[in-house]
Amino acid sequence: MLKPLLFLLTALSLSSLHAADTGLKRYLYMSTPDGAQSGGSGKGILVFDIDDGHRFVRRIDIPFKEGLRGFCGSLKNHAVYYSSTSRILGAFDLETEKVLWERQLEAGVDRACVTPDGKKLYAPTGWWWRGTNSGMLVLNPANGEVLNRLPSGPQAHNSIASLDGKFVYLGTETNFWVYRAKDDSLVKRFEGVGERGVFPFTVDSRNRSAYICLGQHVGFDVLDLRKGKMLHRVMAADPGNGQPIAHRTHGAGLTPDEKELWISDQDGKKLFIFDATQTPPKQSGHVDLSVGGHGWITFSLDGRHAWCHTPDIIDAKTRKIAATFKDENGQLVSSSKFIEVHFRNGKVVAMGDQFGVGRR
């Protein structure tokens, strides 16, 4: 009886941790408008209280000149970095709530990422950009100065910096690139992944596996990052007839414990769930969403909530919609550019990611 009792007490202690820490404030920062979908609410950042049913708290007025393409953050710099289709890249300090800098880059700028030490900001030139200078820019997060250029072919779209700071991952047109963050050297290029085009991906915390969304079906490719090869192509089965679904997949996220992989079928208004403890991952269920949209999925740091491209706030354990995002006027609001931020005494103490990356 001792082990079950110990497990129960540990679980109860973890579940009440946030409630006991009255000085900790957990918020979701949602940027609006989204450059890839409708459903926004004016311009700026909407702040929601995660521990109060995702209640709308306030609006931070930032005069975004247009819809955003990416919204990444740095705990070290207590800042978020926003990018837009018109080649604007900017930095916003979460503690002072001031815009630190804005730059209009020569090429485009898509979903950027920041290394955990806060020293490098990587900015893909955009899925819409096919010029000879397409690829990824390396910038100084302090002022936006361009430090390096990494050519990687057309349509450089999404990027993720690994949690251990060792690697930076980039998706381009049916290619997946792995760079070493220390010196920006190319480690590996995977060719012919994702069926067609370039779509989102996610990675585990130990840099072992990447999951690449497919461009013509609801599903994903599984890459072995250490061996440098593609292992599996996994298709979601339609709950009605068991057949593959001929929609693109835009959004893939691992739960923080890396036990489940969730992918988005925005056309079908669903999120499909896979058991990621198996190889290849096995389909285990789905969530019906209230509306369609761009397609996205990420999770709260504690794994309790799933957030996507709709106003739906999902209980990750029950797989049910628990609440909806509403602005100060009570109108439903959605975006695929948001990030979790924790404060204590006005200081940023923890930060999530726009991508659902593994954290085990």
Report the principal-axis shape. globular
User: Mean of residue pLDDT?
Assistant: 93
Largest sheet: 5 strands, antiparallel
Q: Note the total helix count.
A: 2
Helix % is under 10%
CATH T-level fold name: Methylamine Dehydrogenase, Chain H
Using DSSP, what is the number of strands? 29
Span from first to last CA? Answer: 28 Å
CATH architecture: 7 Propeller
State the name of the first-level CATH class. Answer: Mainly Beta
Query: Based on helices, strands and strand pairing, what is the structural class?
Result: mainly beta
Total of domains: 1
The CATH homologous superfamily is called YVTN repeat-like/Quinoprotein amine dehydrogenase
Beta-strand content: 35-45%
Order of the strands making up the biggest sheet: 3-2-1-28-29
Radius of gyration: 19 Å
- Which residues sit in consecutive blocks of at least 5 with pLDDT less than 50? 1-16
